[in-house]
Specification:
Elements: E1 2-7, E2 10-19, E3 22-30, E4 34-36, H1 40-57, E5 66-70, H2 82-91, E6 95-98, H3 107-119, H4 131-140, E7 150-151
Parallel strand pairs: 4-5, 5-6
Antiparallel strand pairs: 1-2, 2-3, 6-7
Helix pairs in contact: 3-4
Length: about 150
């Protein structure tokens, strides 16, 4: 389940996951860090405006940031290289993924890696959470269906 609340320029999402018999609730501030790998202007605009949005919305120094390139199912139309996306993500200390909303390639992996990263940061967890057991179970799960275009 995903719950979405729209703010000016930012979507607030709550994604509920069940893994290793535990329910996890991810609180996600979507500041528009998704670009279309087939349209260079989306990447250019993102690299100019996204950083300002992050500075305005992200006041927690432990916040996990993700940059996502979408539409990898249209590889023959690619206008932004994976290396360019990785460089921008690295510059801003973000996780990086390339996904396809259409085919769902790497979408689950993106959430899995985000969850693992959150479990590594105690200040992001609610009191009483037991991240070690959940993290170990997530790591043991075999992931099927992604095409391997993931970088983090």
């Amino acid at each position: 389940m995903i719950v979405v609340v729209k703010f000016s320029g930012v979507d607030f999402k709550i994604k509920l996951l069940t893994t290793a018999g535990k329910r996890l609730k991810l609180t996600i501030w979507d500041t528009g860090s998704v670009y279309d790998v087939t349209r260079r202007e989306t990447f250019t605009r993102l690299s100019k405006t996204w950083v300002k949005e992050l500075e305005r919305c992200c006041t927690d120094p432990d916040c996990i940031k993700i940059l996502v390139g979408n539409k990898v199912d249209r590889e023959n139309e690619r206008a932004v290289t994976m290396e360019e996306g990785m460089a921008l993500a690295q510059e801003h200390e973000c996780l990086f993924f390339e996904c396809s909303a259409k085919t769902q390639a790497n979408v689950k992996q993106c959430f899995k890696d985000l969850t693992l990263k959150i479990l590594d940061v105690p200040s992001l967890l609610e009191k009483g959470s037991t991240p070690v057991n959940v993290k170990n179970q997530i790591l043991k799960q075999k992931h099927v269906g992604d095409n391997g275009n993931c970088c983090s």
